[in-house]
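Section 5: illustrative case.
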């Protein structure tokens, strides 16, 4: 081996060890900021809370593809260390954007302390404290268990939403152990990161220190939440059994319940919310709200971004969707057309109301979109193909550059992610927290027409949107720094 090769090896090993050391030093600071102060640290829209050392290093490396000025861990580490010394109120801080501003504009006349004091002055001067609010999950299926994972992950003195109870049918021998096992192990999303203790005597699960009461009931009318010390709770209905105001109103009528959020499209006059697009329409007096569907959440933010800049005349949304529990594993009777055929063996052409549902969150697109769906033999992660006619001409490079910037620095950065990978496939996006990820390599644009390919984890990405809606309904609102527009 030549001396030059040895030198290169040493250079890269030393750099890696430095990155590891800095990432390891960040972990306790990130944890304390979040658990004690309710401050969530992001890196160009990607959360660093509960990240591992390798996660932090990888997130820094990935961000260099999308940032006009590469930001490395050596540049963010001193800012994160200084943050721990500030008296911050609950907020979200994008350390990637702050570091970019500091290192791009700093001429050594302003030190880090002064820079952060100026950039975060509102958070430092605020004494805002968030009141603890009770949450109940009604149903414990795919979405219910993922919501449990997310709420437990977020739990702590700095986070006001507390998962107090889960309502399920049943109660047969061994039921509690089965529920715990389904939370602990998931064939798609992997092992739960933490500890689950089953309290058979009190019919409860203790999950990472969170005491969660399991309530057995066949209908909302059977439950009195005040018996468990639960008051003014937000009930999140994951069953989909009731989708209108009359049916969901049964939850609000329960003692101890105050509001209800449906994790499916609502019917009638129920507000269908896509967080990031129309969440401000949730009023303090609203008691029943819908978080729409996974597909509506996946496509609406990107459609809004495109419409804002280019104007959408018309379009068609084709959804390539993983199969769900609604379908049969093998051929059997089903009331829906084609859905009775084996989900694990067939592509199944079916209908979807997601395209039309976009108009409930984005009225300016009413009547402009059609849609259809193909269910495919994969258990999770779906794709929406948006074929759009625009008012203005564009090109692939221009459109991609715009959507990439939107994903990084806009008010939709938590809803739209972007990838330029030439090798990404559906399994790579299991656990993606954004409701939609634009595949830049697949973008087609010519004159005033474009085709966008939008990936989405139809389970986890959607569940993250549901949690955002829960926070909005319960008055949990965090400012983001630097401010986004």
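Designed sequence:
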């Amino acid at each position: 081996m030549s001396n030059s090769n040895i030198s290169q090896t040493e250079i890269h090993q030393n750099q890696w060890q430095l990155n590891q050391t800095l990432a390891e030093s960040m972990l306790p600071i990130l944890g304390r900021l979040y658990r004690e102060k309710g401050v969530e640290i992001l890196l160009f829209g990607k959360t660093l809370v509960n990240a591992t050392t390798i996660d932090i290093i990888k997130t820094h490396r990935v961000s260099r593809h999308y940032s006009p000025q590469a930001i490395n861990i050596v540049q963010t580490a001193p800012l994160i260390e200084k943050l721990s010394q500030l008296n911050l109120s609950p907020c979200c801080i994008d350390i990637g954007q702050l570091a970019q501003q500091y290192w791009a504009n700093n001429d050594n006349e302003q030190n880090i302390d002064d820079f952060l004091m100026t950039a975060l002055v509102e958070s430092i001067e605020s004494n805002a404290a968030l009141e603890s609010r009770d949450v109940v999950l009604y149903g414990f299926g795919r979405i219910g268990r993922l919501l449990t994972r997310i709420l437990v992950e977020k739990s702590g003195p700095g986070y006001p939403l507390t998962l107090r109870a889960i309502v399920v049918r049943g109660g047969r021998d061994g039921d509690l152990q089965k529920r715990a096992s389904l939370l602990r192990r998931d064939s798609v999303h992997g092992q739960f990161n933490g500890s689950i203790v089953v309290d058979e005597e009190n019919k409860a699960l203790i999950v990472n220190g969170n005491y969660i009461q399991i309530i057995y009931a066949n209908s909302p009318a059977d439950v009195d939440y005040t018996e468990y010390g639960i008051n003014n709770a937000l009930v999140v209905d994951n069953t989909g059994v009731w989708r209108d105001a009359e049916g969901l109103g049964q939850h609000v009528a329960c003692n101890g319940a105050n509001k209800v959020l449906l994790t499916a499209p609502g019917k009638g006059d129920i507000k269908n919310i896509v967080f990031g697009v129309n969440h401000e329409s949730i009023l303090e007096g609203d008691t029943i709200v819908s978080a729409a569907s996974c597909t509506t959440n996946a496509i609406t933010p990107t459609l809004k971004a495109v419409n804002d800049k280019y104007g959408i005349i018309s379009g068609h949304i084709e959804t390539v969707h993983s199969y769900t529990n609604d379908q049969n594993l093998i051929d059997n009777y089903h009331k829906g057309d084609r859905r009775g055929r084996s989900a694990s063996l067939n592509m199944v052409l079916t209908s979807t109301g997601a395209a039309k549902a976009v108009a409930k969150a984005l009225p300016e697109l009413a009547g402009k979109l059609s849609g259809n769906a193909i269910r495919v033999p994969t258990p999770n992660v779906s794709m929406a193909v948006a074929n759009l006619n625009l008012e203005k001409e564009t090109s692939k490079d221009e459109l991609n550059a715009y959507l990439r910037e939107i994903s990084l620095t806009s008010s939709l950065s938590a809803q739209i992610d972007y990838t330029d990978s030439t090798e990404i496939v559906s399994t790579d996006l299991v656990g993606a927290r954004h409701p939609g990820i634009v595949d830049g390599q697949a973008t087609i644009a010519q004159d005033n027409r474009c085709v966008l390919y939008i990936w989405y984890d139809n389970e986890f990405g959607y569940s993250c949107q549901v949690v955002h809606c829960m926070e909005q309904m319960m008055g949990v609102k965090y400012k983001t720094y630097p401010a986004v527009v």
